[in-house]
Every structure is written in C-alpha cells, then in structure tokens.
User: Fold Porphobilinogen deaminase from Sistotremastrum suecicum HHB10207 ss-3.
Amino acid sequence: MGSIVSLLSGAGFLPEPEQKPVILASRASTLAQIQTNAVLDTIRSLNPTNEFAASFMTTEGDKNQAQALYLLGGKSLWTKELEVALLEGDVDILVHCVKDVPTTLPPGCELGAILEREDPVDVLVVKKGLPYKSLADLPDGSVVGTSSVRRVAQLRKSFPKLEFKDIRGNLNTRLAKLDAPTGPYVAIILAKAGLVRLGFDSRITCPVASPTLYYAVGQGALCVEVRSDDPKIKTLAASLNHWQTEWQCRAERACLRVLEGGCSVPVGVETTLVPLRGTTLGKEPERCMLTLTGTVTGLQGTPHVEHTIMEEVGSVTEAEAIGVLLARYLMDHGAKAILEDIGKDRDNRNAIANKVPAAN
Ligand SMILES: NCc1[nH]cc(CCC(=O)O)c1CC(=O)O
Assistant:
C-alpha cells in the first residue's frame, strides 16, 4: 500500500505529504526563549528548505525555587522533562545552556552541536543606587547573592569578609530581588552571557575573572540535544556546530565528568584554543594549542587546588583526553578530599531537610 501511494504521489497524482516542522524546544524562562529563538533563526537561515518551530516547557528547576540548588542534587533539574519529550518524539531538538547540561546524557540522547561561545566570564552587578565599582569596594559584611557553590567557594577565598547568600529565580527575578529597597543583597554575581542575551549589559558593574573566579564548565555556550537515532535531525543540528567551542566545552565536560560533578560542585575552568599556524581559527578543524585550567575549591574557600595543562590537539577526542588528564591530576592533588567532604555535607543537609537520618 505504501509503495502504491508513493508511486502515485511520485507521479503527481497525490499532493506531497505535508512536511512536519522540526520542533526546537527549551525551558520557558525568558532567557531560554530568547536563546531558542536565536537558534531557530540560525538553523532556519542555514537550512532554508526545512520548516522549523519552537515549543517551551516548565521544568523541575523552574518550579522548585525554595530549596538551595545544591540540595536538590539532581543533576538534570533543567533537562529531564525536555528529554522525555525529545525521546517520545514530541519535539526534535532541545536548546540548552551547556552549563545546565549534565556531563552524562540519558541513553538515546546526545549533543548535536555546540554553538559559538560568548564571553564565559562571571560579572558583578551592584544594587541600583549604590556606588561600589568592584567586589573589593564592598564594605565588610556586605551580602552578595549567588546560588552557585563554585562562585561562593572561590569568592570566599579572596573575600573572606563578605557574606554570601542564596538567590534563586530566573535572571529578571534575581535583578528584582537585588534592587528591592529592603532586600538584603548589596550585589549579585551572574554569568555575563545570560545578562547580555537578555539585554541587561548596562547592569554589569565589572567582570570577575580568573584568578579570582574561574568560570563554570560550558558557561557562555549554547548547545542542542538530539535523539541519537535520528540521522536527519542530527544533520540539521550539526550545521550549528562551532568546532572551536565544541573542543573547548567537551574538554571541560570531560574534566567535570571525572570529577563527578554537576552544576553543584565548586569546579572552575578556563580554556583557550590557539591555532598552531596563523592567528585565527578557520572553518575547518586544525591543530591547536589547548590550554585548560581547572580548579576545585572547598566550600569555605579552602582548600583550593588548581592546575593547567597545555597540549597540542588535533581533534575533539584529543581535547577530551586532556580534560580527563586534568581531572585526574586535580583528584590526585586534593580535589578528591574536597569533593568527598562536600558529599558528606550534602548528605547531612539533605537528611536535616528530609528529617531522616543521613545514609552512611
Ligand atoms: N542555571 C543558571 C544559568 N545557566 C546558564 C546561565 C548563563 C548563561 C550561560 O552560561 O550560557 C545561567 C545564569 C547564570 O549563571 O547567571
């Protein structure tokens, strides 16, 4: 029957079956929608003969804003419901911040592309009306809002007299909480990329970069996730890939995977990729010098382990191998103890939150 239909259709007797649009999906936050619409524009312009549309969903991470992020513990807070929709075929391409994507994806899902990274740096945003120009300007005891253990741990090391307090909600909510006249926060720390995408560049007081604050794995880059068994969609998605960013982010993610982290471990990175010949990286992959720094910091700002590997690489696999080497070095030089300590702390707090004894 199928063959008859296609025969007839091929001969022009039946109209061509209507092509279903390829559905891009993400969380429903303003930032996620802006990001997905940007990716939609790009994928449309690169694949003009295909139809695309967008779909937005609310995830666990959006709903549960009361509990501290690291107590929620689930590494796939932002991605799980979307992945169910992806695997069920309701949607075709998920758009995420690389930073929010767990280092191990569920079976049947994979990253289809990593897009060109924006500036991955963290920034300070001071409350409206206050005169401070940097973290060093803030009076002792000032309350700085961030819910990232990476930021708190690293900043405690340099600014032991500041107080760090959890702040949740999407970017707009956090800025509103910061500026609330009776609110506790004097400043907050955010990723520059998110602020810029939302058009809040003007709120940036100053960057907070290494060696004070190493950024999060994948920070500043977007990626798309696809079904492993969907070659047509994979080809469309691959058109979005920026190989330089992919090498960098995959090296960072390989490092974090070995450190057994998610968004909830105090791991910082800094990565550069420089071509061996010439000064600019071209469209095609070429041999490069990869410089990858990783840090792991105790929640109170100490101990702190930091290491850099500089190595020539000629493929994404070689870049990932450097990430693994870096993680092993860090583990052998203090990171293991730091991460074990944090694991115990989390078990205890979870136990208190759930009123059940901690598992040993
Ligand atoms: N879940 C928070 C999150 N995930 C990605 C970004 C920033 C944008 C990016 O890194 O691409 C943010 C906000 C922040 O850390 O300030």
Remarks:
- The chain has eleven helices and 13 strands.
- The longest strand covers residues 288-297.
- The longest helix spans residues 316-354.
